[in-house]
Structure formats: structure tokens, C-alpha cells
Amino acid sequence: MKNYLSTTLALVCIVLVISLVVMNRADNAHHEADAGTIADVSNQLVSAQAQITAGNGTMLTLSNSLDECRSASFTLSNRLTEAESIIALNTEQITNLNRQLAEAELQNQTLGQTLGRSVMDLTNQLAGLTSQFAVTESNLVQANKNYALLEERLRRDVAERLVMERKFYNLSELQAQIEYLQSHPIETVSADSIYAGLEVAVKSNGTVHVLSPN
User: Fold this and answer.
1) C-alpha of 23 from chain center
2) Digit-coded pLDDT (tens) for 73-96
3) C-alpha separations of 101 from 95, 107, 109, 112, 201 in Å
């Protein structure tokens, strides 16, 4: 009976030892697995920290870029405001220039109409002056003709008067004239009819000066 108990106890001890060995190995394997898992997690944590650090750097870069973009946006906004102000000013100036151009065109049209009327008036005046000039020239030509005729008549009258004066102061001619008048008493001119039809002026010394015929 004691042998049976000892054998059973020994078997139980062996089983326990085997169990302990198996459990120890299992624990060691599990510990190694846990250690590997912990190492992996640590590595992942380091990688995650590295990624976070890189992400922080990227975020900082993005933040700086965002600040730069904001600054550039503000600058562009200011430039856009300035450009809009300049465009508004240019638009106003263009409007003023267009209005001035329209006024200048209207003034040019008015001036052109006035100039056209003035040219027409001057043309009419020139035509009238040309017609008057033609009439005046024709009258001048006629006056020159009349003057030439009068000059010729005057020359002839002066020549005839000179001939008569010469005959009057020539004794033989005067005697012939007296004899002619004596033989033709009808044509004799009396003293009263000598100045008939003539405008005469009597001077203080009694001489008579013929002015012009009536």
C-alpha cells in the first residue's frame, strides 16, 4: 500500500514537474511573444512619434505657408482694392473725356454749321461783289469810252475855238467874215443873242466869262 502511494505520489510529482516545465516554457514563449509585441508596439510608438514629429513639422510648414498665403492674400486684396480704385478713377476720367469729346464734337458741329453759313454768306457776298465789279467794270469801260469821246470833243472844240480866235485876230479873215455877214444879213448874230443859251459870269472889269451851256 505504501509503495502504491509512493508511486502515485511520484507520478503526481512527475506530472506536476512536467506541467511546471510546460507552463514555464509556455510562459517563456508568451513572455517572448509579449516582449516582441511590446517591441513592435514600441517601434510603432517610435514610428508614430516620428510621424507626429514630421506631422508637426508639416503642420508648422503648412501654418507658415498659410500665414504667407494670408499675407499674400491681404497684399492681393490691398492691390485689388487699389486696382478697383484706379479703375473707378480711370472710368470717371474716361466718362469725363467722353463728355468733353461729345461737347467738343457738338461745338465742332456748331462751328462747322456757323462756318458753313459764313462761307455761304461770303460766297453770296463774293458773288454780289463779283457782279458789282462786273457792272462797275462795265460802267468804267463805258465811262472811259465816254471820257475818250468827251476828250475828243473837247479837243475838237478847243481846236475849233483856237481856229476861230485865229480867224478873229486875222485881219483878212475878219474882213472876209464881215463881208460874208453883210452879204448874208439873215444869219447875222445880234449883240443880245451872242450869249443866248449860255451860263455866263460877268467879272468886275466888265468882261464876260462863259461857264457852261444851259
Assistant:
1) 109
2) 888 888 888 888 899 888 899 999
3) 10, 10, 12, 16, 81
